[in-house]
Design a protein that fits this description.
It contains 14 helices and no strands. It is mainly α. It binds a DNA duplex through helix 2, helix 10, helix 11 and helix 14.
Length: 369
DNA sequence: ATGCATGAGTC
DNA sequence: ACTCATGCATA
């Protein structure tokens, strides 16, 4: 988080907004439940290049794999989770108990973490692929997992052990890969706009679906990608913006955030797999252009800032984490109760839980082999 | 690099 | 109301 973090920020402010693309809209606008002071935005491009896209992707990129993989994962989850929460029964119907319990846990959490470090956070040692079973409490036999995933202990049983519940942080960082040592030279030029018809025939048909979705492979690619990007002297934001120039069907620009997450493997497995071919394509083009001596980029700065970000204070956050350990998927009622207890908007709490769940499904350390 | 958020697509 | 892919704002 250093090499480009600094210089990269504050460059462009307009890249991908406004794209409202191709008849994707549905008449489904859910009632915005009394907009509770939610920040609004104007237009957005909202087209996931993931699955379920009516329009087509280039043959090379179009892999039913995504949609089906996605689908099966979802299906699995549904099949595996119907079991009602165990704890819920244990503690009876008293939300009070649950809340009190979690609060107690949160209170006991004497924050022994080094606050000074930019890296806070203690993630429960969730194995990415174990998330599914871990969440149900009743693991549904890893039988059908699309990935080689039979993982051991999902998670210490939540409710019964407040002490270390939030504490343990065994970080078995899988360092498996030993990618090429970082190349020393670093030419300044930054070729961004690649010719649509990339010369030199670098169209590597990622034909084999398995290849693209192998966690190990993705991890290696992400690392390689980053190194080569840096080598080209291109920032994450630049890459995201340049993606639009590729003009791949269904692929517009991406944000610095997404590129960053790709490189750090903090995206879902599906997302990683879907993005890989795209970034591969950009890389190929960029390097080719670089060889041919390309012109510098011309990014136009300027943009207006707006939306304010609500931030949840540490104590509240600790409580939320405790609640989450007890119940990753609280009912609306519980969410409301929690929100009231912590004096947060219900929606904020709801979103927090959603994001938390999403976090668990991320790839990080996917050297599960 | 990440936290909180939006929106489409689903269930 | 949830999941997923994404992004703005910010530490």
């Amino acid at each position: 988080m250093s090499e480009d973090a600094g210089g990269e920020r504050a460059r462009r402010g307009s890249a991908a907004i406004e794209h409202r693309s191709l008849g994707q809209r549905r008449g489904r606008e859910r009632a915005p439940s009394r907009c509770q002071g939610l920040h609004t935005r104007e237009g957005r491009r909202t087209m996931a290049l993931n699955a379920k896209q009516p329009f087509t992707m280039p043959a090379a990129l179009q892999e039913p794999k995504f949609s089906s993989l996605h689908a099966s994962a979802e299906a699995m989850r549904r099949v595996c989770l119907p079991a009602p929460q165990l704890q819920g029964n244990i503690f009876g119907s008293f939300d009070e108990s649950l809340l009190a319990r979690a609060e107690a846990l949160a209170a006991v959490d004497i924050a022994p973490h080094a606050k000074g470090l930019p890296h806070h956070h203690h993630h429960p040692p969730f194995k990415p692929d174990a998330a599914f079973s871990a969440m149900s409490g009743v693991p549904c036999a890893a039988a059908a997992l699309p990935l080689p995933a039979a993982l051991p202990h999902p998670l210490p049983h939540p409710a019964l052990d407040g002490g270390d519940l939030l504490e343990h942080l065994s970080s078995p960082l899988a360092v498996g890969g030993l990618p090429e040592p970082l190349p020393p030279p670093l030419p300044p030029a930054a070729p961004l706009a690649l010719p649509v018809g990339a010369p030199g025939g670098p169209p590597p048909p990622p034909a084999a679906p398995e290849v693209g979705s192998d966690p190990r492979e993705l991890e290696a690619f992400a690392e390689r990608f980053k190194q080569r990007r840096v080598r080209l002297g291109v920032t994450q934001a630049d890459v995201g913006a340049a993606l639009a120039a590729l003009q791949l069907p269904g692929v517009g620009a991406l944000s610095q955030s997404t590129i960053c997450r790709f490189e750090s493997l903090t995206l879902s497995h599906n997302n990683m797999a879907a993005l890989r071919p795209v970034l591969q394509a950009w890389l190929d083009g960029a390097e080719a252009a670089h060889r041919d001596g390309a012109a510098g980029p011309d990014l136009l700065p300027g943009a207006e800032r707006k939306r304010k970000r609500t931030s949840i204070a540490a104590p509240e956050k600790r409580s939320l984490e405790a609640f989450f350990a007890l119940q990753p998927r609280p009912s609306a009622e519980k969410i409301a109760a929690i929100a009231e207890k912590l004096d947060l908007k219900k929606n904020v709490v709801r979103v927090w839980f959603c994001n938390q769940r999403q976090k668990q499904k991320r790839m990080k350390y996917s050297a599960v082999h």
